[in-house]
């Protein structure tokens, strides 16, 4: 039964949901429906149904209807505050009721006196239903037709495509099926479309804008998926999503062999390595939440605020694996089904934290019911966001990370990504978890931090007490507790060998990087906070190629003074101990608001008043920054560069302000350079190099602007690859421009941290690569194995290719052959 007619559950005045004087309902945050201003005191069932839940405060009820719709009837507004006074229930949770059966009675006068209003919203709280209003702006009696609720079944594959509906079938080519990251990309891709888009497979359907609902379908490699849509742009939505899935989303291939997939019957390697350490059990306790809420409006607002806070925190993740995972986590915070599930509970008087947890647990149960090990791994992501949102709602400080002794082997049932990030990886010898899977996000993080990890080791590991000696051979997914003396001695010798090799690596990082044939390449570090400097120097940084000065300007009420800035720049220069320091002037815009710089919200902040544009609009701010740099950093160490430059006119305007700062401070003039991070600057590099003292590529922005792909958008994340030949040609143009005027040119975008890309950047003729500090020892080691002529030949060949994938394949092969 897909369509159901509901009769009025109260006698009263029927009104449109938009007219309810409460934005939570009027803006359909709880769902679509209607409202009645009642004149009688008994709420009756509007159709045959099952009672899902009566609010403990008896002011609201949810009913499950025969077509699956979940109907919320909320008697009055803000009536949760009455704590049940004036309400009497006639049914209990789980009761099966017939149309017209009494559900709740209320003392009309008593409730009317004490509540904001008696207006009673009646809404469909779950997704996938269309509501047609049958009576509006008129009086209705009990049993009069009120609304019709239609289940939105997916359009059949054979159905003719009409103006506003479309469907098509695709076979899933992704090796691991539709797991969290592809699901997040699909949801993100649909954002510009208005159409209602649903997926159907395995006799189930799901909202294609809901990551968790998609996971609940358990879509695996080779499954046939029916995509259907309704709405004005249905056809565009279907073809876009179908093309995205059929592209393989960067994960096309055969499913992994069953042995590689963790099951509860066998441990699996999540991150390679070998370690000996001392066990420490790690228990994740649920954060406490009260069940009862403090009013629908307040709790709904608390949830929204907490979701926004968690989203903002996730947006801070910069680059690499952490940023990719953060995008998938952001999608969970935007998931419409999860949010609707929580809001429906809030409407029943539950607290925001309780509602969010209950909605999350529902979704986890759906995912677990698929029985798919890979999907079940994603439940950890949902639990992680559950904890973060509940912590944000409570406003309590995040639970302190456990203090780790040196060489700790952490034993846990499972570990959430944010929990891993709160631990000190330097003290973690290894991790062993009872559950989890080798492709979980925490496994990716452990691998990138070099911490060996075994997952799916089974519940017995939870019985291992603290303080035991454990050998963890994560490569072989094996471990031993309290081994005999001989085995332990052997294991310790193996760990010692690895440590010595690593130490040799770090020691070598301190010497200059030269290719095998002796060509010098400077290796600098990108820094975003002063504290990173020591780590960068210890890792072999020969200078700082990019100081992102934004850290001084964000999260505060006033701009930093000249003296405050100068002191911080001086501190970093001191820590660099005479090594060059390239300071970039402020690079913020409409996407990173600061209270003391009123910036209108922009539709396209990446194309808006950011970087040098913002500084030129506020010359006093720019001059103060120039003065602080000149005063704080010793001459000879100091170089200054300008972000987001487009052409020589912009540079000239900034230089005029710089010249004034030099004259006013009496400081020695430090070189002034430009970042090449717009295609315009790359193409005009020769005209810029004629005026600027040096150039530095910002490959992150150069890539996003060249490929028209937002670097912060999950839907385009896979396209962001600086090895795309279009980007390489822009880099080649920039190098040619710098050479024409004998200028130094470096690179400080994320690309320079990747040894594969470094070979091509060196081949293209860059003088310097500025990388993230942790990447430096490996980068230097890789450069020592390269030959400059091979790098030049590789770069020349790459410029003639057509796609990033071709360039990657070529570079990987060239490096393999050279090894
Ligand atoms: C870049 O765009 O490559 C760059 C280094 O600047 P940011 O990442 O800070 O925008
Ligand atoms: Mg940039």
UniProtKB/TrEMBL annotation:
What protein name applies here? phosphoenolpyruvate--protein phosphotransferase
Q: Which InterPro entries match?
A: Dup_hybrid_motif, HPr-like, HPr-like_sf, PEP-util_enz_mobile_dom, PEP-utilizing_PTS_enzyme, PEP_util_C, PEP_util_CS, Phosphohistidine_dom_sf
Mainly resides where? Answer: cytoplasm
Which cofactor(s) are needed, names only?
Answer: Mg(2+)
Entry-linked SUPFAM superfamilies: Duplicated hybrid motif (SSF51261), Enzyme I of the PEP:sugar phosphotransferase system HPr-binding (sub)domain (SSF47831), HPr-like (SSF55594), Phosphoenolpyruvate/pyruvate domain (SSF51621), Phosphohistidine domain (SSF52009)
Where does the PTS EIIA type-1 domain lie?
A: 22-126
| EC number(s) recorded for this UniProt protein | 2.7.3.9
* PROSITE patterns named among the record's database cross-references: PEP_ENZYMES_2, PTS_EIIA_TYPE_1, PTS_EIIA_TYPE_1_HIS, PTS_HPR_DOM, PTS_HPR_HIS
Enzyme class at the top of the EC tree: transferase
What are the protein's UniProt keywords? Cytoplasm, Kinase, Magnesium, Metal-binding, Phosphotransferase system, Pyruvate, Sugar transport, Transferase, Transport
